[in-house]
Amino acid sequence: MRGVAVALTAVALLLGACTGGGSGKPSPTATIGFADCEKNPTTCNGGELKLGGSYTYGLERTIANWNVNTKDGASPSTKQALSGLLPQVFEVDPQGRLQLNADLMISADITNQNPETIVYKIRPDAVWSDGIPITADDFIFSWKQNSGNPLHCNGCTPAATAGYDVIKSIVGSDSGKTVTMTFTDGKTFGDWKGNFSNDGLYPSHLATKQGYDLAKPDGVYAASDWFARTVPTWSGGPYQIDSYDRDKSLVLKKNDKWYGKTKPSLDTITFRFITDPAAILPALKAKEITGMSPTPSQTLVAGVSGTPGVIYEVGESYAWEHLMLNVRNKYLADPVLRRALFTEVSVKTVVEKTYGAFDKDLKPLGSHNFVPGDTGYKDVISGTGQGTGDSEKAKKLLTAAGYKLDNGRLSTKAGEAVPTLRLRYDKDNAIRSAAAELISAALKNIGIDARPEPADNLQQALTAGDFDLVLSDFVNGPLYQGAAERRWATGAAGNYGGYSNAELDRLVHAAAIDVDPRHAADTLNQADDLLTKDAYVLPLMQRPTLTFTYSEYANIRDNPSVWGPTYNIGEWGLRST
């Protein structure tokens, strides 16, 4: 799924390396740094390490909540900050593949199809930083936090319940080192590998020490809330927290009880919170940070490329930008108006004027469920005319349905003027601000006044349905089966615009429970045809990634998942030569 554009600074220039052609991809002679990431995404920027040293990594958001099993705590920045602490059953590698975490697990396998049963084998030496073993109790605690069932947790607000809400039981054996998870009779879940992987395990024994009764729903909630409020003194990974300066920095040190096969090289890793995009380049040039993977911009890419000693990579993430409509608005409830609106928008222009300014290979996205390179990817949009910017076609759709365009204003067949619509986006996102202006200007051609209106808290606006049109994103991943149901099903948590289609509900649910991933992908493409016809969300493009680091550090590389480059944080280090 990766299409990588790389530029090498100082060291590369010394060797005469250059980028070739209009694609921005490296020439065959650019063999250092990130130059081989396209061919070797899981090993590029590797090298022999020496013990010791420190690294400072920039994060775009501060930490509001320390429990990634909650809505407020599930942000990419929080997950990355805690990546050195949280044990996961499966991890996403830079190719977007799920890999069993061999440090924590011996195995995780389906042992029965009906009822669907998964048996996890935890390594005997896997322990928390206080020496207490990681066991089935930690799996059970995670399940109860995420199930969405008030009988398990009275008050928990999980980021997602899919996969946890269909578990019937979790039973430990072999001193808790064998975990048997059984799904409810008649229920299956194709994305079972996401359980205990999209988030991470928390030490249940510490909650018990606080006096919380994890056998009771109120006790689970109190424990979940305690983990959310409390800076972790614990770890189940290669690093643990040494100090925290609120909203400024988080410092990690080595976990002396780390049980993994690879011992960390760096003595400390500091996460520095840089919430102002304009502050990133000055911090890099002053070596206040030594690496980062921020939201890219043309200015940022140019600035990074001009910083001596820094290598960088522009890749493709699982996140994709889109334009969503609120179908609760009585005017946008008409699918004809929605189709005309999407037809008037030129996605190609939006791409070229935003991320495409520095990622020349970036193209319009043609799917609501997959990104190019995924085995299930199918362009279901291009043939419909949506996203083409075809004003004549958009006008014909409207006039055929009785709409009238008079003096630059659009009226319904009942003679009602379509009112000004609010086009929301997050106020600190310059890319979306530019996209909003482009879309607003285009829609004037068909008499629609879409007024760009930045939101102080876009997630809050989405959850409240406080928009008519909105520029936002979704984040895909290798676990695609349940994601569609969470976004498109009637009343689903991610269905912010109030969309509903009974046949689509049936299809996305069938895909979510299908034990055959390829068949599920076919089902999702059928659902995508319906979603496109109904013109609820217009995909725009994959969001590029930007990863950069000073070249003396090895094993830091792009990763398309929310964990970003921190997916292998225990392997970061200074080059030995």
From TrEMBL:
Keywords: Signal
PROSITE patterns per the UniProt record, alphabetical: PROKAR_LIPOPROTEIN (PS51257)
Name of a matching Pfam family: SBP_bac_5
Signal peptide: 1-22
Entry keyword annotation includes Magnesium: no
UniProt superkingdom: Bacteria
Domain Solute-binding protein family as annotated: residue spans: 112-477
Name of this chain's protein: ABC transporter family substrate-binding protein
Source organism per UniProt: Dactylosporangium vinaceum
